[in-house]
Design a protein that fits this description.
The complex is a heterodimer of chains A (413) and B (151). Chain A contains two helices and 27 strands. By secondary structure, chain A is mainly beta. Chain A folds into three domains: 112 residues, Immunoglobulin-like; 113 residues, Sandwich (Immunoglobulin-like), CATH 2.60.40; 108 residues, Sandwich (Immunoglobulin-like), CATH 2.60.40. In chain A, strands 2, 4, 5, 6, 8 and 9 form a six-stranded mixed β-sheet that branches. In chain A, strands 11, 13, 14, 15, 17 and 18 form a six-stranded mixed β-sheet that branches. In chain A, strands 20, 22, 23, 24, 26 and 27 form a six-stranded mixed β-sheet that branches. Chain A is elongated, with a radius of gyration of 28 Å. Chain A starts with a helix and ends in a 10-residue tail after the last strand. Chain B has 151 residues and is mainly beta. Chain B has a single domain, classed as Immunoglobulins (Immunoglobulin-like, Sandwich), CATH 2.60.40. In chain B, strands 2, 4, 5, 6, 8 and 9 form a six-stranded mixed β-sheet that branches. In chain B, strands 1-3-7 form a three-stranded antiparallel β-sheet, with no helix packed on it. The chains are: A mainly beta (413), B mainly beta (151). At the A-B interface, helix 1, strand 21 and strand 22 of A face helix 1, strand 3, strand 4 and strand 7 of B.
Chain lengths: 413, 151
């Protein structure tokens, strides 16, 4: 069947190639404007190999030709295009317009750009009124720059005066069961999902048993700092019996606290030993979903015994079944649960949702987590739309991983 | 301004027109489909195989997805989609449902891996996430096109 398929597409490709030739013939390359002799463009005050800050103003120089805004048809003119981390585009076609090909169609001769940390290449390419390079093309040399990570500045989003977040439930000093519903309140600002940059908005972060993190950088994402990046206003967590603290901290679209920061006061709760909600949960049991016999869930990364960094993306693989978000009832699908440093829970009831049992109810297939240095165990369990494992359970081996201690580079004298 | 893309568009259209009529093709419903938004830094990529790899005739393609979730076709949920594997074909028009044929494999059950059998030789693979209606998100979530050698 596949062989037949491949035969089919080979035929198809052959025909398509003919089509391409024909299409090429019918579509003559647009005419390119001649460039002036000795025309030259270059970066002003930016040398190859330079280390630059993340946010940098770049100036463009031109010799023997002139700058004209896009659309202006005049001989020996053009406008700059900045190519970032990309080679030259096809020179007989309009220069693409995207993140890697920045147009300066108003005839700008300088621009402020922001680059992420790391090494980058920059190159200038002159385009004519129709964004097509000249003939011969007027290009600058390729400049390699290095962006110093320390200068990657994340600007904190301003928060309006009087904005506040609060924990609506539970109340300070409450004694609660192990499964705690936490409700978040916000006033004076709006909620927006992570990634959505909108003034006067943010999303909640619940800090459990931890003080406020540094406020000038991204809020950590780990078992003590839960992100509610989809603008949720409540969550259910499962806490160990004992005393705990909860605090809310609003983060902007990049998980950065606002300026001034918007956080709630710390509340203290006591988790009672008994689990009164267990009985209620067991009630709506309607049997487990069957799983296909050859289904398997496994770790793509890390593998058994691997040494990993404290901030690592755990990647899940699933064989012979599909992924569906929680709440979607469809045969032979389920969503992932990552069990961290716990024994396999009972498989005939909903998996707990807490710091050690991480649910991926949105159908995620990977997650960046933060683990403390040392030995940890990880295990994956697939569960149905009600978080109940399948029958037979689709469960990975429990793997041990070793989290490296990352030494901060100390500055030597 | 976009002559190059136009030419590619022509090429793709001619390819689609040449696909055997038996395949369940949805040719361009005229109304512009409403685009589903993708998550800002969403990324779909190959766990296996990697670009330039030599693989046996029968192998498993394993798919990774960053910052978004997988949902079976038909499920409407923000920031989810299902995988499409494009084999030996150029990127499809992004404002129309992804074709369903031998070159465009739909993983509509929410699968994150698929077993392929390809003839010996050089092939290209590319991933494209589609929403509940098999239309690419906006901006599209696609992998780079990789080349593999089947021995």
């Amino acid at each position: 069947m596949y062989r037949f398929a491949s035969f089919c597409f080979i035929v198809l490709i052959t025909i398509a190639m003919d089509a391409r030739i024909e299409a090429g013939a019918q579509q003559p390359a647009p005419t390119r404007n001649p460039s002036a002799a000795k025309a030259k463009i270059y970066f002003v005050d930016l040398k190859d190999g330079a280390t630059i800050p993340s946010k940098v103003k770049i100036r463009f120089g031109i010799e023997n030709m002139e700058i004209a805004p896009a659309g202006t048809v005049r001989p020996n003119t053009g406008h700059h295009h900045l190519l970032i981390d990309t080679g030259l585009p096809p020179l007989d076609q309009p220069i693409p317009s995207d993140f890697n090909h920045i147009h300066f169609g108003s005839g700008q001769t300088e621009a402020e750009i922001t680059l992420p940390a790391g090494e980058h290449t920059l190159q200038l390419l002159l385009g004519d009124h129709a964004h097509i390079p000249h003939n011969p093309p007027v290009v600058s040399e390729i400049i390699h720059v290095k962006v110093d990570a320390a200068t990657v500045e994340k600007t904190r989003t301003p928060a309006p005066a009087g904005a506040s977040v609060s924990l609506v439930e539970p109340v300070d000093g409450a004694t609660v069961g192990r499964n705690v519903t936490v409700k978040f309140g916000i006033s004076g600002m709006d909620l927006a999902p992570a990634g959505t940059s909108k003034p006067n908005s943010g999303h909640h972060h619940l800090l459990i048993d931890t003080p406020l993190p540094p406020l000038d950088r991204e809020i950590p994402s780990d078992l003590n700092h839960l992100h509610f990046g989809r603008a949720q206003t409540e969550t259910e967590i499962t806490l160990a019996p004992g005393d705990h603290t909860l605090q809310l901290l609003l983060g902007d679209h990049e998980h950065l606290p606002h300026d001034p920061p918007v956080y709630s006061k710390v509340i203290r709760i006591r988790v009672a030993n008994a689990a009164p909600e267990k009985a209620a949960q067991a009630a709506p049991k309607e049997g487990r979903q069957p799983s296909p016999p050859d289904a398997a869930v496994y770790f793509v990364y890390p593998t058994k015994g691997e040494s990993i960094y404290p901030n690592s993306t755990i990647r899940f693989g699933l064989r012979n079944m599909g992924v569906a978000p929680a709440g979607i009832a469809k045969p032979n699908t389920g969503h992932h649960h990552l069990l961290i440093d716990v024994d396999t829970p009972p498989l005939d009831q909903p998996l707990p949702s807490d710091l050690n049992h991480v649910h991926f109810g949105n159908g995620q297939t990977e997650k960046k987590i933060t683990l403390s240095p040392g030995k940890h165990t990880l295990q994956l369990v697939l569960a149905d739309e009600r978080h109940i494992p399948h029958d037979p359970p689709v469960i990975s081996e429990r793997i041990e991983v070793f989290v490296k201690i990352v030494r901060k580079r100390s500055r030597r004298r | 301004m976009r002559h190059g893309q136009f030419a590619t568009g022509l090429l793709i259209v001619s390819m689609i027109a040449l696909v055997p009529a038996s395949t369940p093709l949805q040719i361009a419903p005229a109304q512009a489909a409403e685009h589903t938004a993708s998550a800002p830094s969403a990324l779909v990529y190959f766990h296996y195989p990697l670009d330039g790899l030599r693989v046996p005739e029968r192998f498993t393609v394993k798919i990774g997805l960053k910052e978004m979730g997988v949902a079976p076709a038909g499920v409407v949920k923000p920031f989810t989609g299902h995988h499409h594997l494009l084999i030996d074909t150029d990127m499809v028009p992004l404002d129309q449902p992804i074709p369903s044929d031998y070159n465009h494999i739909h993983l509509g059950g929410g699968q994150t891996e698929v077993v392929l059998t390809l003839p010996q030789g050089t092939h290209t693979l590319q991933l494209l996430l589609g929403d509940h209606q098999h239309v690419a998100h906006q901006p599209p979530v696609m992998s780079k096109k990789i080349t593999i050698y089947v021995r």
